[in-house]
Amino acid sequence: MNTLSELITKEMEQAFTAAGYDAKFAKVTVSNRPDLCEYQCNGAMAAAKTYKKAPIMIANDIVANLQDSECFAQVDAVNPGFINLKLKSSFVTAFLNEMAGDDTLGVEKEANPKTILIDYGGPNVAKPLHVGHLRSAIIGESVKRIMRFKGNDVTGDIHLGDWGYQMGLIITELEKRQPDLPYFDESFEGEYPKEAPFTIGELEEIYPTASGYAKEHEEYREKALQATYLLQNGHKGYRAIWKHIMNVSVTDLKKNYKNLNVEFDLWKGEADAQKYIPGMVEMLKEKGFAHVDEGALVVDVQEEGDKKEIPPCMILKSDGAALYDTTDLATLVEREELYKPDEVIYVVDKRQELHFVQVFRCAKKCGIVRPETGLKFLGFGTMNGKDGKPFKTREGGVMRLENLIREIDEEMYKKIMDNRTVEEEEARNTAKTVGLAAIKYGDLSNQASKDYVFDVDRFTSFEGNTGPYILYTIVRIKSILGKYQQDGGIIEDLKLQEATNESEKALMLEIAKFNEMINNVYAEIAPHKICAYIYDVANAFNKFYHETKILAEEDAQKKAGYIALLKLTKDVLETCIDLLGFEAPERM
Ligand code: ARG
Asked: Domain DALR anticodon binding: where (predicted)?
């Protein structure tokens, strides 16, 4: 389906041509003065130079050619040459009825679907998930859903941090505590038992203990580094412990991400990329891309026209160890071999931007990816507390994801229980659903690259630009539709009717922007624009609701039209929140 702007632009093109002007000036956009008009065309201004005429004269010529248009109820030329447009209700209604009959509500699938891989989540195995990982998960999940909705073949990869120093720390601490385990012997060959020598609870305690201890004790740190090295170089016993750590952690991570309504197609990680490193290093040397600089193997990535210095990509340290650059490059080798993505999108803290600039340049320069492969860095800002500093617990420690979620759920639960008689269990479940919406909407309503303040009070409010407000609106619509059905009404296949008042028309115009909005969100990878849109829709709906008797309407056709409008509003809002990664409860 065309967007409403496209349809109106076509109508304007005809008018421009008929009046003797080039149709390229006919572009129409949503009005930025909603008090004056609904859509506007500024083409007369641009055409003025070409035709050496006053813009207002051109605008007048156009208006004269639009007198019996199917689209417009009112067309005005205003100084210095704007063309203000108000749409006919019949035109908007026909558009909405077509949209209501379409599976994807008028959104066209990508004409050339791409294979897209999204690298998001990025938790570090055995280290606690913190709020920094929350943003990646929330934004990445939404981006994945948006790309999919447009018909692309999308794979989400969690890209675990599962190959670092934390593993050496855990091995060292474990050896200290349980020296009798068979794994520590260099000659360990045997099968490792199914049962892990620790629970997730113990593992969560082992890492911070070991990490703290290593900071104070040189010898212990050396041991942990050595263990990391041995693990990475084939020590079979350590590898067995590593597998235990992975099994226990991944089970726990899956539970955590499920609670966030975040789902990955691939549970790969840094460890999977290791086997691609030797071949890649060989290639980089052989083709002359890499050279030795102060003992380290590096690839220059500085390009002409750079305003600042971009340091070389570090492939191997002087002791032969691989680095973060190496792993991300090897992961691209792996991805190219296994999935051949047209595009890879990284949803990572924006403070890692330089690393990705280096990796992307190196991958392109050395032919690790194809010249046409799109490598995109979607960097996000920091989640701050009300004091403007990175979000902390009340005691000043790093806020763990689980605790943050628990805090929000508690707050939601209290609000739901206030002045309401709800069963305990229902209230708890609703609090979870609404709490998740509060967190996700609070995050996604900000442009991803910006820092934002995580404000529990504001995010959990049922009023204002919040997740709970959006859900409340959906629940309100569901409740009206439910009553209509209880009275024997059938919702399916009802047709929208022409608007009879201002607030109804305003709502219809908002709904009609859906496919255009989605196209923009998709082109710009900008989930925050979905939030801005549904906030407008929710406001328009609530105004309409307060000014209109819906179920009490006596004119049956009019009432059916209202119900059809409500159903479409609900479908639009629910599609949008699904793209944001949350859902609405039945009641709240
Ligand atoms: N594990 C990393 C961290 O916690 C994020 C990984 C991002 N993805 C990547 N391909 N480097 O900072």
From this structure: 470-588
Contact call for residues 509 and 558 (beta carbons, < 8 A)? no
Please give the distance, rounded to the nearest whole angstrom, from the Cα atom of residue 159 to the centre of ligand 1: 7
Q: From the CA of 242, how far away is ligand 1's center (Å)?
A: 19
What is the total count of domains within the chain? Answer: 4
Q: Which of 45, 70, 87 is the last residue of a domain?
A: 87
Mean pLDDT of 455-482: 96
For 379-399, how does the pLDDT look when each residue is reduced to its tens digit (9 = 90+)?
999 999 888 888 877 777 777
Q: How many residues does the chain have?
A: 588
**Residue 287 shares a structural domain with residue 302:** yes
Cβ 122 under 6 angstroms from ligand 1? yes
Query: Could you tell which of 127, 139, 157, 159 is best to mutate to test the pocket of ligand 1, judged by most ligand atoms within 8 Å of the CB?
Result: 159
Index of the ligand 1 atom closest to the CA of residue 349: 12
Per-residue 3-state assignment (H helix, E strand, C coil) for 28-73: EEECCCCCCCCEEECHHHHHHHHHCCCHHHHHHHHHHCCCCCCCEE
For residue 355, report the distance from its CA to the centre of ligand 1, in Å: 11
pLDDT at position 361, please? Answer: 98
| Domain shared by 36 and 146, yes or no | no
Residue 588, in any domain of the structure: no
pLDDT at 438: 97
**What contacts 24+ positions apart, CB below 8 Å, involve 297-301?**
299/362, 299/365, 299/366, 301/357, 301/358, 301/361, 301/362, 301/365
Task: Please tell me whether residue 222 adopts helix, strand or coil conformation.
Answer: helix
Residue 193's pLDDT band, with cuts at 50, 70 and 90, is: low
Classify residue 558: in a domain, yes or no.
Answer: yes
| Full residue range of the structural domain in which residue 364 is found | 119-160+269-384
Amino acid in the structure at residue 112: N
Q: How confident is the model at residue 421 (pLDDT cuts 50, 70, 90)?
A: confident
Looking at 325, 360, 384, the residue that finishes a domain is 384
Residues 173 and 199 in one domain: yes
Output the CA 524–ligand 1 centroid distance in Å. Answer: 23
Cis peptide leading into 468, omega within 30 of 0?
no
Q: What is the mean pLDDT of the chain?
A: 94
587 within domain boundaries: no
Q: Of 456, 404, 412, which is closest to residue 430 (Cα–Cα)? A: 412
Q: Is the CB of 335 under 6 A from ligand 1?
A: no
How many Å lie between the centroid of ligand 1 and the Cα of residue 385?
A: 23
Q: What is the ipTM of this complex?
A: 0.99
- In this model, does residue 192 exceed pLDDT 70? no
Query: 274 and 151 in one domain?
Result: yes
